Amino acid sequence: MSKTTVYVVLAMLVCWTAVIAAADYFVLGTTVRQYLSKSFTPTRCEIVSSEVTPHNETLHSGVTVEYVYTVNGKEYRGSRYRYDDDYSSIPGADVARKLQKWTEHTVYYDPKNPANSVLATGVGGIDLMLILFSLPVNVAVIMLWNWIASWLREKWRMPEAGGVRIWRQNGKIRVRLAGLSATAAGIYALGGAAFAATFPVVALNGLSPGFQAMEETWLAVLAVAAAAFCWTALRNASGKFDMLIDEQSQTLTLPQTAGRRQSVTFPRDEIAGICLQRRVSRLSSGNFYSFLPALDHREAGVGLRREALSPCGWTEEKARAFSQWLAGQLRLEFKGIEEEFPQVTAPNLM
Question: How far apart are CA 55 and CA 59, in angstroms?
Answer without folding.
Answer: 9
